[in-house]
Amino acid sequence: ASCMQHRLVVRDASSLQIRQLYTCLDQIQYIEWSSDSLFILCAMYKRGIVQVWSLEQPDWHCKIDEGSAGLVASCWSPDGRHILNTTEFHLRITVWSLCTKSVSYIKYPKACQQGVAFTKDGRYMAVAERRDCKDFISIFVCSNWQLLRHFDTETQDLFGIEWAPNGCVLAAWDTCLEYKVLLYSLDGRLLSSYRAYEWPLGVKSIAWSPSSQFLAIGSFDEKVRILNHVTWKKITELDHPATIASKKTIVYKEVEKSPTVETERLSFPPTRALASSLFSTQSKYDISQVPVSLQYVKPVADRANPKVGVGMLAFSADNCFLATKNDNIPNAVWIWDIRKLKLSVVLEQLCTVQCFQWDPCQPRLAVCTGSSRVYLWSPAGCVVVQVPGEGDFQIMSLSWHSSGDSMVLLSKDNFCVCYLEREEV
């Protein structure tokens, strides 16, 4: 699904044929599929309205108007039949049921980076709350929205919460001014509290491994710390130095090259295809000889949100690899072998890494850098894929299809779909 101004366009993922066209009441600012792909939500925050469309019954639609309370966020519940709307100033979360048309209210949600988290099986929801100048977490049962547990947290300013994939442990972390990661059980017991250091800026990002065995914590000190699920103690620290010295690490460096054109093919005036190939540059990966010095950017100390520390990290679907990005070294992606807890590969790009995401079915990483190329890495090697088309298509983000057969590449104004052929086994 994609939107342009008031219009929502639903296409077939394999052929890109238009399946449905819907017209909303105002400019669409957010869209989200229900978990079963039968409904699609369109949020218009400026007017405080959410419209829901059905793919099976195109004539059916639903409009939710929050009125004077306003609207700042909207999302589906895991069952795909309830919508959670957060009102302005985070006064409350309103839970709307599409089946019974009933409404439930959750008071005092906290305005933080990640204040609502669902377990992977969709049974429970955790909500970060702020009341009487203290942080709390409430756990609800998603089937009837009844409160299961309510407890306060040992945080100064709770910044985010995230469930482990198995739904047994909830991680909560404090603001960057206070290094603290807290791990709670489903019944609200504090299992463990982790603090790596005290005074400098603290946690910047966290990620659970798909098996729930590891919790990776990216910090402002340019390190990733990995906790184990048995004792919740640190098992290793992963450094991100500007110089790669280990001979066991493979460094792939992106290099640009101009295409060679045979002089016999030149004509005047040149054809459109020939002209575009003459002035376009291609890129490929070369393997660099260690030691390799990576481009290091010194952060500006007197500004908020400094570009320093590990801001992006993600585990592969098979738990074998961890990809990270250190904001001090913006052009590099670090790929760690979790089985050996060693650095395996570094991808050194020509431009700043904007986004990376793992294939949901196999250890294959896709990277984009704001150029018209997408970069793919797997244990077999890595490749640069040029997006065909006229004009400058700058890929700012990407998203894999759940089957791993294709992915959507997004620029500021356009999108395209990249299809990957599967080898026959």
From TrEMBL:
It comes from the Eukaryota. Gene3D superfamilies: YVTN repeat-like/Quinoprotein amine dehydrogenase. SMART domains: WD40. Pfam families: WD40 (PF00400). The lineage of its organism: Eukaryota, Metazoa, Chordata, Craniata, Vertebrata. This is WRP73 protein. It comes from Pomatostomus ruficeps (Chestnut-crowned babbler). GO terms for cellular component: microtubule organizing center; MWP complex.
